[in-house]
Amino acid sequence: MRKILFIINSKAGKTEFDIRKEDIEETFRKAGRLDEIEVVDTRYKNHTKFLIDAFDSLAYDEKIVIICGGDGSLNELVNVAYGKNMTLGLIPTGTGNDFAKNFSYESFSLDSLLNFKTKKIDLIKINDFYSINVTSIGFDTQVLKRAYDYLEKNPKLGKSAYTKATIRSLTNLTYENLNFDLKLIDGSSFQIKGEYLISALCNGAFYGSGFNPAPEAKIDDGVLNLILADKIPLIKLPSMIIKYKKGLHQSSKYLREIKVTSGTIKSNTEFLANADGEIFKTNEIKFEVLPKALNWVIFSK
C-alpha cells in the first residue's frame, strides 16, 4: 500500500501555491483516496524530523513525502529523510523557491497531486550534512544574511528584501581567500587558490531568489558546477550582478565555471557559507556529488 505524507510549513512565505491542509484533503476525498494521505502542519522546531522518524517506522510498501514550503524547508526534509526508503517532493510555497525553478510548475494544480511520476536526482554531501540545490560562499551569502535580517524585522518585504540586501552589500565588499582541491569530471585532480567574491557549488541552476549562476547545471547528471567570481572592478559590478541574475555571465573574464564531482574548500580563517539558504560557519568544506541519490516527485503537466 502507498502512503503520502504532506508536510506544510506554516511559516513559509506565501506564493501562488498557497495550499492548505483542507485543500489537499478535499482533493483526495473527491477522488475516493483520502486513506492514502496524511497532512500535517509543522508547529515547532524539528517537527519535520519527528514526522519523518515516525513515518519511517510504518510498514507501507511505498512512502512518499511532499513538503509544502521553501528551500529551507526542503533542505531540512532532505537532511532528515535521506537514507530512508522514501520518495520526496516539493510544492513551492516559500519566498525564493529556487530549487523549484529546476522543474515546471506552470500547469500545477491540486489535481496534480493525484497523478505524478518520479525520477532519480543528485544530492550534494557537504561535510556531515546534505545540500540539494546550491552551497555557496562569499557575497551571495552576505546578501542572504542581510535579507534574513530584513525579513525578521519586516516579513512583509518578501522578495524585495533580497534586492535591498544586495544594494546594501555592494557598499561593503569582502573577498574570501580560499584553497580548492578538486576532482574533475574526467577523474583528474585540480588545485586552485585565490581571493573570490563568490564561490557557488551548484547542483541546481538557481539560487538567491532567482539568480541563475549555473545555467547549464542539471540535477541528474552526476556533476556539480562550481562558479568562481574573481575580484571585479566596482564600476563593473552592478552590470555583472544583473548578468549573473539572468544567467548571462558565462563569457565574463571575471567568472569561471569548473565541472567537478568532489573536492575540498579550505581557508585559514572561518568563513560564512550557506547550503540551500541555511547559513553556517566553517573553515573547511568537504563535498561530493551523490549521483541519483534521491527518488523525486515530478508533477505531470
Query: What's the CATH class of the largest domain, please?
Result: Mainly Beta
- The assigned structural class equals alpha+beta
How many strand elements?
13
The backbone outline, from C-alpha atoms, is: globular
* Number of H- or I-type helical stretches: 6
CATH architect. name of the largest domain: Sandwich
Order of helices and strands: EHEHEHEEEEHHEEEEHEE
Helix content: 10-25%
Here the CATH topology of the largest domain equals: Tumour Suppressor Smad4
Describe this structure in words.
The chain is of the alpha+beta class. The chain folds into two domains: 113 residues, Rossmann fold (3-Layer(aba) Sandwich), CATH 3.40.50; 162 residues, Sandwich (Tumour Suppressor Smad4), CATH 2.60.200. Strands 1, 2, 3, 4, 5, 6, 7, 8, 9, 10, 11, 12 and 13 form a 13-stranded mixed sheet that branches. Strand 1, helix 1 and strand 2 form a beta-alpha-beta unit. Helix 2 runs parallel beside helix 3 and helix 4 packs across helix 5. The model has no long low-confidence stretch (mean pLDDT 92).
Give short descriptive properties of this protein:
301 residues, alpha+beta, Rossmann fold, Tumour Suppressor Smad4, 13-stranded mixed sheet, 6 helices, 39% strand
Strand-helix topology:
Blueprint lengths: L1 E7 L12 H10 L6 E5 L5 H10 L5 E8 L1 H11 L5 E6 L23 E11 L2 E3 L2 E5 H15 L6 H10 L6 E9 L4 E8 L1 E5 L21 E6 L7 H10 L8 E21 L2 E22 L2
Parallel strand pairs: 1-2, 1-3, 3-4, 4-13
Antiparallel strand pairs: 5-6, 5-13, 7-10, 7-12, 8-9, 8-12, 10-11, 11-12, 12-13
Helix pairs in contact: 2-3, 4-5
